[in-house]
Design goal:
The complex is a heterodimer of chains A (205) and B (300).
Chain A lengths: L3 E6 L8 H10 L8 E8 L6 E8 L7 H5 L5 E3 L5 E3 L9 H5 L6 E3 L4 E3 L5 H4 L6 H5 L5 E5 L6 H8 L15 E4 L27
Parallel strand pairs in A: 1-9
Antiparallel strand pairs in A: 1-8, 2-3, 4-5, 6-7
Chain B lengths: L17 H9 L1 H13 L7 H27 L2 H9 L7 H28 L4 H34 L12 H23 L6 H29 L4 H11 L4 H22 L4 H24 L3
Helix pairs in contact in B: 1-3, 1-11, 2-3, 2-6, 2-7, 3-4, 3-5, 4-5, 5-6, 6-7, 7-8, 7-11, 8-10, 9-10, 10-11
Classes of the chains: A alpha+beta (205), B mainly alpha (300).
Bound molecules: iron/sulfur cluster (3 copies).
The site of one iron/sulfur cluster has 14 residues of chain A, from α2.
Chain lengths: 205, 300
């Protein structure tokens, strides 16, 4: 039994959104909701102003509030630790969304169910990488077994200081970050979903 | 130093909207009606049997209403059904609450059947005596379920990042007292409207005393809730939102003035005026409902 996780190296993320786009395409994610987004955060002031790119997704938490909150048992943990939603069992009560401190879950109106990142179980079952990992041009996302000392992810995690998003929530995320400039602290109040209420109105294709 | 807001907002909008807010507000009503009528029915009033019967019908009606709200919120009736029939996660307050609602509706239906049969039967004394023990046990079970449903919103909302006030020390007690207030006010309201039913005077008297006692407990609980929020910085932000911020008008106007001061004056000084009792009961209902809404919404 593996302990699957993802490591994101913020040193090399260039904020290109290839991961978000690949994920959207892989799952036909509806407009306005996301399994993976990249936060752009500006910090400091001239002449020391800087911009951070922070990819965010479901953390497949070891202690997952979404899983504990779901009244129908639709949120499940798979053998290798991925937290997924059984579409047929979801009755759309949104308890998982109210409990997840990362805003990682959204309502898919067409499917009539809550949805989120699955760590691409359908791809990894075939030995492939998650779509977002495959798409990343700088290889800043590494996916694998955190418990396998020989895996690339375990080696890189051991060789670097790693951080998690919103550590104070006590959820013990399996998505780890190499974050030398403490960028994660800048998105402590944010979530995966994007507030589009300030977007300018326009025609949707 | 900036103090982080106690409610993070990881979603652009809270996952639970107005329908769930109405549910949280109204789910106290059937519990309050059951607990109030159960208490009144044991005060040796002349109309004790009728009070139990009306109480069961009233609680059933209110439960039917909130079930409809839940069905609308979930979108389809079978989704509500799955909430009752799935036992995969009894660690979820929503799962437990839905099953308690279903159990209470079933038990109320049995009790109502007994009440109505007893009333219609020409020889009512015999079957009622035979079933009295069962009825009494069922009534106790219904009372315990009602108590559980009165406090359960605190547990439900404390698991949500969107309702940080429901995670406070006084939340469960406030949910319980507001449920009792709603129940007592609904009974007084009904009695004041139906003025001509037998036993009105003693019912009004007992109901008024109960409501005054509850209002006193409510005021003290609110006071200590606010004091408990004065400690940590994130809690002070919540208290600020209630006392001087965006929710201040609702808190001071509807909860304190409307929900406590107005009915206290009405029930203390105009005790024989049925209109004053009516207005007081409506004010209590509004104040209790607003309090429950604030526990749901403050910090979002
Ligand atoms: S990030 Fe949210 S959705 Fe993902 S496992 Fe943790 S609580 Fe659940
Ligand atoms: S692992 Fe798959 S589902 Fe999760 S963010 Fe990446 S592409 Fe999307
Ligand atoms: S694809 Fe890679 S580099 Fe581009 S935004 Fe995503 S994580 Fe960053």
């Amino acid at each position: 039994m593996a302990r699957l996780g993802m490591l994101v190296d913020l040193n090399t993320c260039i904020g290109c959104h290839a991961c978000s786009v690949a994920c959207k395409a892989e799952f036909d994610v509806p407009l306005g909701v996301f399994r993976d987004t990249v936060k752009y955060v500006e910090h400091g002031s001239y002449p020391q102003a800087t911009r951070h790119f922070i990819p965010v997704l479901c953390n497949h938490c070891e202690d997952a509030p979404c899983l504990n909150a779901c009244p129908t048992g639709a949120v499940v943990r798979l053998e290798d630790g991925e937290v997924t939603i059984e579409e047929g069992d979801c009755n759309l009560n949104r308890a998982c969304m109210s409990a997840c401190p990362y805003g990682a879950i959204y309502v898919d109106v067409d499917k009539g169910a809550a949805q989120k990142c699955t760590f691409c179980t359908h791809r990894t079952a075939e030995g492939r990488q998650p779509a977002c990992v495959d798409a990343c041009p700088t290889n800043c996302r590494i996916f694998g077994d955190l418990d396998d000392a020989d895996s690339a992810i375990a080696k890189k995690a051991a060789a670097n200081d790693v951080a998690v998003w919103k550590e104070s929530e006590g959820t013990r995320p399996r998505v780890l970050y190499i974050d030398p400039r403490n960028a994660l602290s800048l998105i402590a109040d944010a979530g995966v979903q994007v507030d589009q209420s300030v977007d300018l109105p326009g025609e949707r294709a | 130093m900036t103090v982080p807001h106690p409610a993070q907002a990881p979603l652009p909008e809270a996952a639970w909207g107005p329908l769930l807010a109405s549910y949280v507000v109204l789910v106290g009503l059937p519990s309050g009606v059951t607990l109030t009528t159960w208490w009144l029915g044991r005060q040796r009033l002349s109309e004790a049997a009728a009070i139990d019967r009306y109480g069961a019908w009233g609680a059933m009606g209110a439960l039917a209403l909130i079930s409809v709200l839940l069905i609308f919120d979930l979108g389809r009736p079978e989704r509500f059904y799955s909430m009752i029939t799935r036992f995969d996660n009894l660690g979820s307050p929503l799962a437990v609450g839905a099953k308690l609602i279903a159990a209470k509706m079933f038990l109320l239906a049995v009790l109502i059947y007994g009440f109505e049969r007893g009333r219609r039967s020409a020889n009512a004394a015999e079957p009622m005596a035979a079933g009295r023990k069962t009825g009494s046990v069922l009534a106790w079970v219904v009372v315990f379920i009602s108590f559980a449903l009165a406090v359960y919103p605190a547990s439900l909302l404390s698991r949500s990042w969107a309702s940080p006030l429901a995670d406070s020390s006084g939340s469960a007690l406030i949910f319980l007292i507001t449920a009792l207030l709603m129940g007592a006010a609904a009974v007084l309201l009904t009695v004041s409207v139906l003025g001509t039913v037998p036993g009105t005077r003693e019912l009004l008297h007992a109901g008024r005393r109960a409501l005054l006692l509850l209002l006193g407990c409510f005021a003290v609980t609110l006071l200590f809730e606010m004091l408990s929020l004065a400690g940590r910085a994130p809690d002070r932000l919540l208290a600020g939102e209630v006392l001087t911020g965006g929710s201040a008008a609702m808190f001071w106007g509807v909860v304190v003035a409307g929900g406590i001061a107005v009915p206290a004056v009405g029930l203390l000084f105009f005790r024989t005026h049925r209109k004053a009792v009516f207005v007081s009961a409506v004010a209590v209902l509004a104040g209790a409902a607003a309090t429950r809404y604030l526990l749901f919404a403050v910090g979002q």
